[in-house]
């Protein structure tokens, strides 16, 4: 017969107690023994109660109970002194994430929305992970296209059409290393011309709906996990996930994107629901006092998230709701503005690639929003903004965005342009003299302001990969990130799979890369691991 360690300890103590009771009960040795036995029993029952409490808390989280209703045996200290949740959350599924970090960065955009005069737009194959570097290009310089006309497709996925975001003249088919296609640039017409579509009927099958989405040009907006690649139309996803809020540094307020367009949003959701036999999950912002407008959405499963960045990352939400894996665990994800694009297609019969883009960061004198289209030229997009000299322009946020210039173009999936100062000036003694506030997860550097002038300085160079708990402080996911990264570096496929590589994409580890004392390029390492796993099939 086998016993667990606590049970075995308990039985041994009982047996010893029975034998010892035959001796003189008043002897000093017996008193010491009774004291030790009593202490052991207390420890045993404490372990049993603690394990039971932990299991109950885990079960309550899996059921989606909010932090006030976690079904533990005893309330936690932070539950006793936490403020009350808003009324709209009391009967909702709420996940309160304790790990994470909000970078106290200045340059948050105001609610002002401008419409800059952007004349050049581009579609770039490198924006889509998993595509071959040299796709089949369907246009040449001087050709005229309408918004929605196919301009290239991947030779391996010929059914998926990548279409022009605007109408106009093709003025450049630019190539990069090894003759790869860097981007295809279009000079936009003043009056946009749209390709005409024969919309599917209301009773169209899923297969007919998929074929229409492939042909129309909106399919590349649907991404598939694992690996965050363009969704495979031959796969029926288990579920579809949409995050409706952005917690990245000075990120956009996505509530503005659906202001006055909730009918278009609901139309897009109705289409997305037909793409899966499972559920469509909305990750909702539970940090505010008022209910977000996305809560009005019908026909979806709603889950609220509270906590610091990366609570708004769809990967974090998938991890807590229903983790992803291989086989039938494949899921799809969409962004809010991609759902709006699908809704516009089915409601008005045109490919409208309109984007609300946040122009943010401490290097801009007047951060705000710009209404433009996918692939807008960066220089024309930020024209009229006073940009500080020697600043770095980033398509996306400071953690996972791509460095660009005024001659570059907005990435397909980005809805933010950020600018911060280049931190290439040496600092005397560096962190040894904390005379200047800086963003850090370490409490040794006090931060009094929530609007720091962040720079690109990493405050150190790449060094030995040390083990600490910094990753666990900022990643609200049950993944051993240090061990996973080391497994990728040594090409240990079995460990990579077992440690959760299928659950992660680069944006999920971006904050851990910021907090890394070893200055390891975690996003680059993870992408290397994805390449390896895809190559191995």
Q: Can you tag this structure with a few keywords?
A:
537 residues; alpha/beta; 3 domains; 6-stranded mixed sheet; 13 helices; globular
Tell me what you see in this structure:
With 537 residues, the chain is an alpha/beta fold. It folds into three domains: 5-83, no CATH class; 117-348, no CATH class; 461-537, no CATH class. It contains 13 helices and 20 strands. It has a seven-stranded mixed beta sheet. A six-stranded mixed beta sheet has the order 2-17-16-20-18-19, with no helix packed on it. Helix 1 (5-20) runs antiparallel to helix 2 and helix 5 (262-273) packs across helix 7. It starts with a helix and ends with a helix. 39% of the residues are buried.
Brief rundown of the structure:
The protein is an alpha/beta fold and about 525 residues long. The chain has helices at about 5-20, 30-60, 75-80, 205-215, 260-275, 315-320, 335-350, 380, 470-475, 480-490, 495-500, 510-515, 520-535, and strands at about 95, 115, 120-125, 135, 145, 150-155, 160-165, 170-175, 180-190, 225, 230, 240-245, 280-285, 300-305, 330-335, 355-360, 370-375, 390-395, 400-405, 415-420.
First-to-last CA distance: 44 Å
Q: How many runs of DSSP E, i.e. beta strands?
A: 20
Unreliable runs: none
Q: What's the total helix number?
A: 13
What is the domain tally?
3
Tell me the strand percentage band. 15-25%
Largest sheet properties: 7 strands, mixed
Rounded to the nearest angstrom, the radius of gyration is 27 Å
With strands numbered from the N-terminus, the spatial order across the biggest sheet is: 1-14-13-12-15-10-11
Mean pLDDT: 87
Secondary structure: helix percent: 25-40%
Q: Sum up the overall morphology in one term.
A: globular
Main structural class = alpha/beta
């Amino acid at each position: 017969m086998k016993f667990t360690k606590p049970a075995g300890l308990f039985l041994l103590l009982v047996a010893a107690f029975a034998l010892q009771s035959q001796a003189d009960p008043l002897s000093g040795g017996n008193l010491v023994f009774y004291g030790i036995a009593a202490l052991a029993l207390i420890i045993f029952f404490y372990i049993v109660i603690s394990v039971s409490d932990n299991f109950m808390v885990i079960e309550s989280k899996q059921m989606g109970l909010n932090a006030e209703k976690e079904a533990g045996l005893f309330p936690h200290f932070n539950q006793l002194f936490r403020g009350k949740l808003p009324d709209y959350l009391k009967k909702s599924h709420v996940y309160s994430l304790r790990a994470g970090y909000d970078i106290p960065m200045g340059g948050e955009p105001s609610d002002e929305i401008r419409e800059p005069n952007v004349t050049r737009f581009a579609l770039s194959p490198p924006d889509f992970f998993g595509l071959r570097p040299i796709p089949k290009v369907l246009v040449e310089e001087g050709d005229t296209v309408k918004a929605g006309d196919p301009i290239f497709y991947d030779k391996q996925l010929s059914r998926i059409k990548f279409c022009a975001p605007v109408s106009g003249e093709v003025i450049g088919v630019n190539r990069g290393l090894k003759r790869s296609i860097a981007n295809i640039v279009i000079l936009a017409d003043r009056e946009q011309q749209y390709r005409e579509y024969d919309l599917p009927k209301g009773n169209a099958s899923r297969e007919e709906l998929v074929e229409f989405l492939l042909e129309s040009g909106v399919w590349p907006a649907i991404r598939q996990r694992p690996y965050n690649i363009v969704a495979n139309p031959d796969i029926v996803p288990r579920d579809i996930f949409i995050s409706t809020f952005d917690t990245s540094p000075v990120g956009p307020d996505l509530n503005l994107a659906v202001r006055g367009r909730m009918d278009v949003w609901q139309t897009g959701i109705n289409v997305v629901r037909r793409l899966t036999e499972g559920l469509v999950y909305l990750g909702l912002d539970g940090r505010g006092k008022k209910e977000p407008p996305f809560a009005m959405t019908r026909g979806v499963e709603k889950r609220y998230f509270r906590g610091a960045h990366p609570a708004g990352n769809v990967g974090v939400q998938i991890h807590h709701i229903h983790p992803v894996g291989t086989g039938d665990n494949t899921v799809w994800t969409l962004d809010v503005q991609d759902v709006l694009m699908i809704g516009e297609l089915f409601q008005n019969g045109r490919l409208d690639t309109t984007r609300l883009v946040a122009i943010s960061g401490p290097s801009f004198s007047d951060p705000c929003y710009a209404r433009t289209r996918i692939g807008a030229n960066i220089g024309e997009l930020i024209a009229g903004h006073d940009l500080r000299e020697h600043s770095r322009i980033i398509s996306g946020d400071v953690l996972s965005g791509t460095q660009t210039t005024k001659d570059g173009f907005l990435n397909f999936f980005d809805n933010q342009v950020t600018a911060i100062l280049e931190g290439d000036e040496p600092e005397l003694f560096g962190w040894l003299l904390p005379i200047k506030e800086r963003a850090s997860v370490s409490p040794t550097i006090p931060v009094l302001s929530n609007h720091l002038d962040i720079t690109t300085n990493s405050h150190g160079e790449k060094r030995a990969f040390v083990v600490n708990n910094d990753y666990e402080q900022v990643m609200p996911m049950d993944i051993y990130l240090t061990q996973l990264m080391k497994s990728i570096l040594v090409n240990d496929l079995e460990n990579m799979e077992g440690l959760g590589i299928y659950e992660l994409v680069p944006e999920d580890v971006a904050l851990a890369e910021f907090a890394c004392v070893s200055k390891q390029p975690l996003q680059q390492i993870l992408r290397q691991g994805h390449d390896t796993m895809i190559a191995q099939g």
